[in-house]
Amino acid sequence: MSLIMPKDIYSHVLCLVETMPVWDQKHFSESKTMESHFYNVDVKWENSRKGILCSPELNKKNGVCIEVATPPEFPKGIEGIWSPEHLFVAAVSSCLMTTFLAIAENSTLEFTSFCCQAKGKLAMVEGKFMMSEILLKPTVVIHNEIYTNKTMRILKKAEDACLITHSIKSKITMEINVEVHPMLIESE
Fold it and tell me: Per the domain annotation, does 187 fall within a domain?
């Protein structure tokens, strides 16, 4: 990931919009209905097929922006920089993770690790390029084998509840891997 941390982050963004309130997780858990929220992103072309992607809400907190570019599979694409296609797949994968974390917490699932490999397929569909499929391969590590089915159910619930997945046309496939690593307790 290429990170840009300019001295004056706003000098890199010409079209900043008014900062909206950041989503309050406590409000979400206490309320059955959630009001609409807005997430602001600003992009500014730098040179060639590359720009800088920022969010006013995030910049106030940590001042980090991301370089974005056309992927190398396209004319004049640039290697080694996040592309819209990578960010699209990352949105689905990270939504699965955050949704899993919330459901696991509410279900009191004890786990030691979550990771997810994700692969998005860009394809020509009806004469237009689109991200047609995303394969998610989450791996959750637990200590006790008796929680394997519970872990799988929570992962499936997370996939079903992911708001990013609800917002796209891509076919989402998930290959679940639950690993059991028993906790070793040393005797004295």
Answer: no
